[in-house]
Amino acid sequence: MLQIRPEDIERKSFEIITSQMDKGRLEFYTEDELLVVKRTIHTTADFDYQNNVIFQNNALDNLKDCIRSGAMIFTDTNMALSGINKRILTSKFGIEPLCLIAEERTIALAKKNSTTRASAAIDLAYQIHEEKLLSDGQKLPIIFAVGNAPTALIRIHELLDKYKPDFIIAAPVGFVNVIEAKNLIKQSNIPSIICDGNKGGSNVCAAIINAALLQLA
Amino acid sequence: MLQIRPEDIERKSFEIITSQMDKGRLEFYTEDELLVVKRTIHTTADFDYQNNVIFQNNALDNLKDCIRSGAMIFTDTNMALSGINKRILTSKFGIEPLCLIAEERTIALAKKNSTTRASAAIDLAYQIHEEKLLSDGQKLPIIFAVGNAPTALIRIHELLDKYKPDFIIAAPVGFVNVIEAKNLIKQSNIPSIICDGNKGGSNVCAAIINAALLQLA
Fold it and tell me: Which residues form the signal peptide (chains A, B) (predicted)?
Protein backbone atom coordinates (compact mmCIF):
# COMPACT_ATOMS: atom_id res chain seq x y z
CA MET A 1 0.00 0.00 0.00
CA LEU A 2 1.35 3.41 -0.98
CA GLN A 3 2.06 5.41 2.18
CA ILE A 4 0.68 8.81 1.31
CA ARG A 5 -0.89 11.69 3.20
CA PRO A 6 -4.55 12.29 2.37
CA GLU A 7 -3.75 15.80 1.14
CA ASP A 8 -1.27 14.37 -1.38
CA ILE A 9 -3.64 11.78 -2.85
CA GLU A 10 -5.40 14.20 -5.16
CA ARG A 11 -2.14 15.69 -6.46
CA LYS A 12 -0.74 12.21 -7.10
CA SER A 13 -3.99 11.12 -8.79
CA PHE A 14 -3.88 14.05 -11.19
CA GLU A 15 -0.23 13.25 -12.01
CA ILE A 16 -1.22 9.68 -12.91
CA ILE A 17 -4.17 10.91 -14.98
CA THR A 18 -1.92 13.33 -16.88
CA SER A 19 0.64 10.61 -17.55
CA GLN A 20 -2.05 8.30 -18.99
CA MET A 21 -3.83 10.87 -21.20
CA ASP A 22 -3.18 11.14 -24.94
CA LYS A 23 -0.63 13.80 -25.81
CA GLY A 24 -2.91 15.19 -28.52
CA ARG A 25 -5.73 15.72 -26.05
CA LEU A 26 -3.45 17.34 -23.49
CA GLU A 27 -2.59 19.89 -26.19
CA PHE A 28 -6.16 20.25 -27.47
CA TYR A 29 -7.62 21.89 -24.35
CA THR A 30 -6.65 25.13 -22.59
CA GLU A 31 -4.98 24.75 -19.20
CA ASP A 32 -8.18 25.55 -17.29
CA GLU A 33 -10.29 23.29 -19.51
CA LEU A 34 -7.83 20.46 -18.88
CA LEU A 35 -8.47 20.77 -15.14
CA VAL A 36 -12.16 20.17 -15.82
CA VAL A 37 -11.49 17.21 -18.11
CA LYS A 38 -9.04 15.67 -15.65
CA ARG A 39 -11.60 16.00 -12.86
CA THR A 40 -14.18 14.07 -14.89
CA ILE A 41 -11.56 11.31 -15.30
CA HIS A 42 -10.71 11.54 -11.58
CA THR A 43 -14.40 10.94 -10.82
CA THR A 44 -14.85 7.98 -13.19
CA ALA A 45 -11.39 6.51 -13.94
CA ASP A 46 -12.71 6.56 -17.50
CA PHE A 47 -10.29 8.08 -20.00
CA ASP A 48 -13.00 8.36 -22.66
CA TYR A 49 -13.78 11.74 -21.10
CA GLN A 50 -10.61 13.19 -22.62
CA ASN A 51 -12.40 12.84 -25.96
CA ASN A 52 -15.96 13.53 -24.82
CA VAL A 53 -15.93 16.86 -23.05
CA ILE A 54 -16.93 19.79 -25.27
CA PHE A 55 -16.55 23.42 -24.22
CA GLN A 56 -19.03 25.42 -26.25
CA ASN A 57 -19.07 29.17 -26.72
CA ASN A 58 -16.30 30.23 -24.34
CA ALA A 59 -17.84 27.90 -21.80
CA LEU A 60 -15.49 27.99 -18.87
CA ASP A 61 -15.17 31.78 -18.68
CA ASN A 62 -18.92 32.07 -18.93
CA LEU A 63 -19.48 29.48 -16.20
CA LYS A 64 -17.07 31.26 -13.87
CA ASP A 65 -18.72 34.63 -14.59
CA CYS A 66 -22.13 33.13 -13.78
CA ILE A 67 -20.87 31.77 -10.47
CA ARG A 68 -19.15 35.06 -9.57
CA SER A 69 -22.47 36.80 -10.26
CA GLY A 70 -24.27 34.54 -7.78
CA ALA A 71 -26.12 32.45 -10.38
CA MET A 72 -29.07 30.27 -9.52
CA ILE A 73 -27.99 26.66 -10.09
CA PHE A 74 -30.56 23.93 -10.72
CA THR A 75 -29.52 20.27 -10.85
CA ASP A 76 -31.73 17.51 -12.25
CA THR A 77 -30.94 15.00 -9.47
CA ASN A 78 -30.35 15.11 -5.75
CA MET A 79 -27.23 13.06 -6.37
CA ALA A 80 -25.64 15.82 -8.48
CA LEU A 81 -26.75 18.35 -5.87
CA SER A 82 -25.11 16.34 -3.13
CA GLY A 83 -21.84 16.07 -5.09
CA ILE A 84 -21.38 19.82 -5.52
CA ASN A 85 -18.73 21.44 -3.33
CA LYS A 86 -20.90 23.60 -1.08
CA ARG A 87 -17.89 24.71 0.97
CA ILE A 88 -16.89 26.90 -1.97
CA LEU A 89 -20.22 27.48 -3.72
CA THR A 90 -22.23 28.49 -0.69
CA SER A 91 -19.59 29.89 1.67
CA LYS A 92 -17.72 31.94 -0.92
CA PHE A 93 -20.40 32.80 -3.47
CA GLY A 94 -23.55 32.58 -1.38
CA ILE A 95 -25.14 30.23 -3.89
CA GLU A 96 -27.49 27.52 -2.63
CA PRO A 97 -27.94 25.10 -5.52
CA LEU A 98 -31.37 23.55 -5.87
CA CYS A 99 -32.83 20.28 -7.12
CA LEU A 100 -36.56 20.54 -7.77
CA ILE A 101 -37.19 16.94 -8.86
CA ALA A 102 -39.09 15.95 -5.71
CA GLU A 103 -40.89 19.28 -5.12
CA GLU A 104 -44.66 19.10 -4.87
CA ARG A 105 -45.02 21.81 -7.51
CA THR A 106 -42.87 19.74 -9.90
CA ILE A 107 -44.89 16.60 -9.31
CA ALA A 108 -48.18 18.46 -9.86
CA LEU A 109 -46.87 20.10 -13.04
CA ALA A 110 -45.58 16.81 -14.45
CA LYS A 111 -48.97 15.23 -13.85
CA LYS A 112 -50.85 18.17 -15.37
CA ASN A 113 -48.67 18.24 -18.52
CA SER A 114 -48.21 14.44 -18.79
CA THR A 115 -44.46 14.91 -18.82
CA THR A 116 -41.47 13.75 -16.78
CA ARG A 117 -40.61 15.34 -13.46
CA ALA A 118 -37.22 16.31 -14.89
CA SER A 119 -39.02 18.23 -17.63
CA ALA A 120 -41.47 19.88 -15.25
CA ALA A 121 -38.57 20.86 -12.96
CA ILE A 122 -37.22 23.07 -15.78
CA ASP A 123 -40.52 24.98 -15.95
CA LEU A 124 -40.52 25.37 -12.18
CA ALA A 125 -36.91 26.58 -12.20
CA TYR A 126 -37.80 29.40 -14.61
CA GLN A 127 -40.83 30.21 -12.46
CA ILE A 128 -38.68 30.43 -9.30
CA HIS A 129 -36.17 32.55 -11.22
CA GLU A 130 -38.96 34.97 -12.20
CA GLU A 131 -40.40 35.02 -8.67
CA LYS A 132 -36.97 36.06 -7.37
CA LEU A 133 -36.76 38.84 -9.96
CA LEU A 134 -40.21 40.11 -8.97
CA SER A 135 -39.52 39.91 -5.23
CA ASP A 136 -36.13 41.64 -5.05
CA GLY A 137 -35.43 42.94 -8.57
CA GLN A 138 -32.35 40.70 -8.90
CA LYS A 139 -31.95 39.15 -12.34
CA LEU A 140 -29.44 36.42 -11.55
CA PRO A 141 -27.84 34.19 -14.19
CA ILE A 142 -29.44 30.76 -14.43
CA ILE A 143 -27.42 27.54 -14.74
CA PHE A 144 -28.89 24.12 -15.47
CA ALA A 145 -26.69 21.21 -14.41
CA VAL A 146 -28.10 18.06 -16.01
CA GLY A 147 -26.41 14.73 -15.34
CA ASN A 148 -29.25 12.33 -15.75
CA ALA A 149 -32.39 13.31 -17.63
CA PRO A 150 -32.40 13.93 -21.39
CA THR A 151 -35.97 15.22 -20.99
CA ALA A 152 -34.57 18.14 -18.97
CA LEU A 153 -32.42 19.16 -21.93
CA ILE A 154 -35.33 18.63 -24.33
CA ARG A 155 -37.51 20.94 -22.19
CA ILE A 156 -34.78 23.60 -22.05
CA HIS A 157 -34.69 23.46 -25.85
CA GLU A 158 -38.50 23.63 -26.21
CA LEU A 159 -38.65 26.77 -24.09
CA LEU A 160 -35.78 28.64 -25.79
CA ASP A 161 -38.11 31.12 -27.53
CA LYS A 162 -39.32 32.27 -24.14
CA TYR A 163 -36.39 31.57 -21.78
CA LYS A 164 -32.67 31.31 -22.42
CA PRO A 165 -30.48 29.91 -19.66
CA ASP A 166 -27.04 31.48 -19.15
CA PHE A 167 -25.24 28.18 -18.87
CA ILE A 168 -25.93 24.46 -19.34
CA ILE A 169 -24.03 21.42 -18.21
CA ALA A 170 -25.33 18.74 -20.56
CA ALA A 171 -24.13 15.43 -19.16
CA PRO A 172 -26.99 12.92 -19.06
CA VAL A 173 -25.84 9.30 -19.23
CA GLY A 174 -27.67 6.57 -21.07
CA PHE A 175 -28.87 4.95 -24.23
CA VAL A 176 -32.25 6.44 -25.09
CA ASN A 177 -32.56 10.02 -26.38
CA VAL A 178 -29.34 11.04 -24.63
CA ILE A 179 -27.28 11.80 -27.75
CA GLU A 180 -30.25 13.47 -29.45
CA ALA A 181 -30.90 15.70 -26.42
CA LYS A 182 -27.25 16.75 -26.22
CA ASN A 183 -27.34 17.59 -29.93
CA LEU A 184 -30.18 20.06 -29.27
CA ILE A 185 -27.91 21.87 -26.80
CA LYS A 186 -25.02 21.88 -29.28
CA GLN A 187 -27.26 23.48 -31.91
CA SER A 188 -28.38 26.17 -29.47
CA ASN A 189 -24.85 27.55 -29.06
CA ILE A 190 -25.68 28.50 -25.46
CA PRO A 191 -22.48 28.49 -23.36
CA SER A 192 -22.31 24.86 -22.27
CA ILE A 193 -20.09 22.05 -21.18
CA ILE A 194 -21.32 18.93 -22.93
CA CYS A 195 -20.30 15.30 -22.37
CA ASP A 196 -20.69 14.03 -25.89
CA GLY A 197 -22.05 10.56 -26.60
CA ASN A 198 -23.74 8.21 -24.15
CA LYS A 199 -21.56 8.99 -21.16
CA GLY A 200 -22.00 11.42 -18.29
CA GLY A 201 -23.81 11.15 -14.98
CA SER A 202 -24.68 12.98 -11.81
CA ASN A 203 -21.14 12.46 -10.52
CA VAL A 204 -19.62 13.84 -13.73
CA CYS A 205 -22.01 16.80 -13.65
CA ALA A 206 -20.96 17.65 -10.09
CA ALA A 207 -17.28 17.14 -10.97
CA ILE A 208 -17.54 19.73 -13.76
CA ILE A 209 -19.02 22.34 -11.43
CA ASN A 210 -16.45 21.51 -8.76
CA ALA A 211 -13.57 21.88 -11.22
CA ALA A 212 -14.80 25.38 -12.06
CA LEU A 213 -15.26 26.21 -8.38
CA LEU A 214 -11.71 25.13 -7.54
CA GLN A 215 -10.46 27.59 -10.15
CA LEU A 216 -12.36 30.33 -8.34
CA ALA A 217 -11.42 29.34 -4.78
CA MET B 1 -35.90 11.99 -31.19
CA LEU B 2 -37.27 8.60 -30.23
CA GLN B 3 -40.90 8.94 -29.12
CA ILE B 4 -41.01 6.77 -26.04
CA ARG B 5 -42.95 6.75 -22.80
CA PRO B 6 -40.83 7.44 -19.70
CA GLU B 7 -41.74 4.03 -18.27
CA ASP B 8 -40.38 2.32 -21.40
CA ILE B 9 -37.02 4.11 -21.39
CA GLU B 10 -35.45 1.83 -18.80
CA ARG B 11 -36.64 -1.34 -20.55
CA LYS B 12 -35.32 -0.07 -23.89
CA SER B 13 -32.01 0.96 -22.26
CA PHE B 14 -31.49 -2.51 -20.82
CA GLU B 15 -32.24 -4.06 -24.22
CA ILE B 16 -29.56 -1.88 -25.80
CA ILE B 17 -27.08 -2.72 -23.03
CA THR B 18 -27.74 -6.45 -23.48
CA SER B 19 -27.27 -6.19 -27.24
CA GLN B 20 -23.91 -4.44 -26.80
CA MET B 21 -22.45 -6.71 -24.10
CA ASP B 22 -20.01 -9.51 -24.89
CA LYS B 23 -21.67 -12.89 -25.29
CA GLY B 24 -19.11 -14.51 -23.00
CA ARG B 25 -19.89 -12.10 -20.19
CA LEU B 26 -23.64 -12.54 -20.62
CA GLU B 27 -23.06 -16.25 -20.01
CA PHE B 28 -20.54 -15.75 -17.19
CA TYR B 29 -22.95 -14.25 -14.65
CA THR B 30 -26.15 -15.67 -13.14
CA GLU B 31 -29.39 -14.03 -14.23
CA ASP B 32 -29.67 -11.97 -11.03
CA GLU B 33 -25.99 -10.97 -11.11
CA LEU B 34 -26.46 -9.81 -14.71
CA LEU B 35 -29.16 -7.39 -13.57
CA VAL B 36 -26.62 -5.84 -11.19
CA VAL B 37 -23.90 -5.64 -13.85
CA LYS B 38 -26.29 -4.14 -16.38
CA ARG B 39 -27.38 -1.51 -13.87
CA THR B 40 -23.76 -0.41 -13.35
CA ILE B 41 -23.50 -0.01 -17.14
CA HIS B 42 -26.86 1.81 -17.19
CA THR B 43 -25.44 4.27 -14.65
CA THR B 44 -22.13 4.88 -16.44
CA ALA B 45 -22.58 3.89 -20.11
CA ASP B 46 -19.23 2.20 -19.51
CA PHE B 47 -19.11 -1.40 -20.72
CA ASP B 48 -15.90 -2.08 -18.79
CA TYR B 49 -18.18 -2.96 -15.88
CA GLN B 50 -19.15 -6.22 -17.61
CA ASN B 51 -15.57 -7.34 -16.87
CA ASN B 52 -15.05 -5.53 -13.54
CA VAL B 53 -17.86 -6.59 -11.27
CA ILE B 54 -16.93 -9.47 -8.94
CA PHE B 55 -19.48 -11.33 -6.83
CA GLN B 56 -17.57 -12.84 -3.91
CA ASN B 57 -18.82 -15.56 -1.58
CA ASN B 58 -22.41 -15.93 -2.74
CA ALA B 59 -22.63 -12.16 -2.72
CA LEU B 60 -26.04 -11.39 -4.11
CA ASP B 61 -27.97 -13.87 -1.96
CA ASN B 62 -26.10 -12.60 1.09
CA LEU B 63 -26.83 -8.97 0.23
CA LYS B 64 -30.54 -9.71 -0.21
CA ASP B 65 -30.64 -11.64 3.07
CA CYS B 66 -29.00 -8.70 4.87
CA ILE B 67 -31.56 -6.28 3.44
CA ARG B 68 -34.47 -8.59 4.31
CA SER B 69 -33.11 -8.73 7.88
CA GLY B 70 -33.19 -4.93 8.14
CA ALA B 71 -29.42 -4.41 7.93
CA MET B 72 -27.75 -1.17 8.93
CA ILE B 73 -26.28 0.35 5.76
CA PHE B 74 -23.42 2.82 5.94
CA THR B 75 -22.25 4.68 2.81
CA ASP B 76 -18.93 6.54 2.62
CA THR B 77 -20.37 9.56 0.78
CA ASN B 78 -23.57 11.57 0.86
CA MET B 79 -23.67 11.17 -2.90
CA ALA B 80 -23.99 7.39 -2.65
CA LEU B 81 -26.55 7.85 0.11
CA SER B 82 -28.57 10.18 -2.06
CA GLY B 83 -28.51 7.73 -4.99
CA ILE B 84 -30.00 4.83 -3.05
CA ASN B 85 -33.64 4.01 -3.80
CA LYS B 86 -35.25 4.94 -0.49
CA ARG B 87 -38.72 4.22 -1.84
CA ILE B 88 -37.89 0.52 -1.59
CA LEU B 89 -35.22 0.48 1.11
CA THR B 90 -37.02 2.60 3.66
CA SER B 91 -40.68 2.03 2.80
CA LYS B 92 -40.45 -1.72 2.32
CA PHE B 93 -37.60 -2.76 4.62
CA GLY B 94 -37.61 0.07 7.15
CA ILE B 95 -33.92 0.69 6.60
CA GLU B 96 -32.63 4.26 6.84
CA PRO B 97 -29.14 4.19 5.30
CA LEU B 98 -26.59 6.46 6.94
CA CYS B 99 -23.55 8.43 5.83
CA LEU B 100 -21.38 9.45 8.80
CA ILE B 101 -18.69 11.37 6.88
CA ALA B 102 -19.79 14.81 8.11
CA GLU B 103 -20.81 13.79 11.66
CA GLU B 104 -19.13 15.69 14.49
CA ARG B 105 -18.08 12.43 16.12
CA THR B 106 -16.40 11.34 12.87
CA ILE B 107 -14.53 14.61 12.52
CA ALA B 108 -13.35 14.48 16.14
CA LEU B 109 -12.24 10.87 15.78
CA ALA B 110 -10.35 11.56 12.54
CA LYS B 111 -8.53 14.41 14.23
CA LYS B 112 -7.71 12.37 17.33
CA ASN B 113 -6.36 9.40 15.32
CA SER B 114 -4.76 11.49 12.53
CA THR B 115 -6.73 9.57 9.93
CA THR B 116 -9.21 10.32 7.19
CA ARG B 117 -12.84 11.00 7.93
CA ALA B 118 -13.77 8.01 5.77
CA SER B 119 -11.63 5.80 8.01
CA ALA B 120 -13.02 7.30 11.22
CA ALA B 121 -16.55 6.85 9.91
CA ILE B 122 -16.00 3.05 9.89
CA ASP B 123 -15.10 3.14 13.62
CA LEU B 124 -18.16 5.25 14.33
CA ALA B 125 -20.38 2.90 12.31
CA TYR B 126 -19.33 -0.07 14.46
CA GLN B 127 -19.88 2.07 17.56
CA ILE B 128 -23.42 2.97 16.44
CA HIS B 129 -24.05 -0.68 15.60
CA GLU B 130 -23.01 -1.67 19.16
CA GLU B 131 -25.07 1.12 20.73
CA LYS B 132 -28.13 -0.21 18.88
CA LEU B 133 -27.42 -3.72 20.15
CA LEU B 134 -27.09 -2.43 23.74
CA SER B 135 -30.19 -0.24 23.54
CA ASP B 136 -32.68 -2.72 22.06
CA GLY B 137 -30.86 -6.05 21.89
CA GLN B 138 -31.12 -6.13 18.07
CA LYS B 139 -28.00 -7.48 16.37
CA LEU B 140 -28.64 -6.30 12.83
CA PRO B 141 -26.42 -7.20 9.87
CA ILE B 142 -24.02 -4.42 8.91
CA ILE B 143 -23.36 -3.40 5.29
CA PHE B 144 -20.64 -1.00 4.19
CA ALA B 145 -21.25 0.61 0.81
CA VAL B 146 -18.00 2.26 -0.29
CA GLY B 147 -17.90 4.12 -3.60
CA ASN B 148 -15.19 6.64 -2.97
CA ALA B 149 -12.67 6.17 -0.18
CA PRO B 150 -10.04 3.42 -0.24
CA THR B 151 -9.22 4.36 3.37
CA ALA B 152 -12.69 3.14 4.37
CA LEU B 153 -11.87 -0.32 2.99
CA ILE B 154 -8.42 -0.24 4.59
CA ARG B 155 -10.01 0.54 7.97
CA ILE B 156 -12.57 -2.26 7.57
CA HIS B 157 -9.63 -4.60 6.94
CA GLU B 158 -7.61 -3.29 9.93
CA LEU B 159 -10.52 -3.95 12.28
CA LEU B 160 -11.37 -7.44 11.04
CA ASP B 161 -9.99 -9.14 14.17
CA LYS B 162 -12.50 -7.24 16.24
CA TYR B 163 -15.42 -6.57 13.87
CA LYS B 164 -16.58 -8.40 10.77
CA PRO B 165 -19.15 -6.70 8.53
CA ASP B 166 -21.83 -8.88 6.95
CA PHE B 167 -21.50 -7.35 3.51
CA ILE B 168 -19.22 -4.93 1.65
CA ILE B 169 -19.69 -3.05 -1.59
CA ALA B 170 -16.12 -2.24 -2.56
CA ALA B 171 -16.33 0.28 -5.38
CA PRO B 172 -13.99 3.20 -4.76
CA VAL B 173 -12.85 4.96 -7.92
CA GLY B 174 -9.38 6.38 -8.46
CA PHE B 175 -5.69 5.95 -8.95
CA VAL B 176 -4.07 5.90 -5.51
CA ASN B 177 -4.47 2.89 -3.19
CA VAL B 178 -7.78 1.95 -4.81
CA ILE B 179 -6.69 -1.38 -6.30
CA GLU B 180 -4.68 -2.28 -3.18
CA ALA B 181 -7.65 -1.53 -0.91
CA LYS B 182 -10.00 -3.66 -3.04
CA ASN B 183 -7.47 -6.51 -2.89
CA LEU B 184 -7.70 -6.47 0.92
CA ILE B 185 -11.43 -7.07 0.62
CA LYS B 186 -10.90 -9.87 -1.91
CA GLN B 187 -8.50 -11.61 0.48
CA SER B 188 -11.00 -11.34 3.35
CA ASN B 189 -13.57 -13.49 1.54
CA ILE B 190 -16.35 -11.51 3.23
CA PRO B 191 -19.47 -11.55 1.04
CA SER B 192 -18.85 -8.58 -1.25
CA ILE B 193 -19.55 -7.02 -4.58
CA ILE B 194 -16.28 -5.56 -5.81
CA CYS B 195 -15.65 -3.29 -8.80
CA ASP B 196 -12.20 -4.49 -9.74
CA GLY B 197 -9.51 -2.11 -10.95
CA ASN B 198 -9.60 1.69 -10.83
CA LYS B 199 -13.26 2.11 -11.66
CA GLY B 200 -16.28 2.52 -9.43
CA GLY B 201 -17.86 5.56 -7.80
CA SER B 202 -20.69 6.72 -5.58
CA ASN B 203 -23.13 6.34 -8.46
CA VAL B 204 -21.97 2.79 -9.17
CA CYS B 205 -22.17 1.93 -5.47
CA ALA B 206 -25.76 3.18 -5.30
CA ALA B 207 -26.62 1.37 -8.55
CA ILE B 208 -25.45 -1.94 -7.08
CA ILE B 209 -27.67 -1.54 -4.00
CA ASN B 210 -30.59 -0.43 -6.17
CA ALA B 211 -30.21 -3.45 -8.45
CA ALA B 212 -30.48 -5.74 -5.43
CA LEU B 213 -33.45 -3.75 -4.08
CA LEU B 214 -35.32 -4.06 -7.37
CA GLN B 215 -34.96 -7.85 -7.12
CA LEU B 216 -36.62 -7.65 -3.71
CA ALA B 217 -39.36 -5.17 -4.62
Answer: none
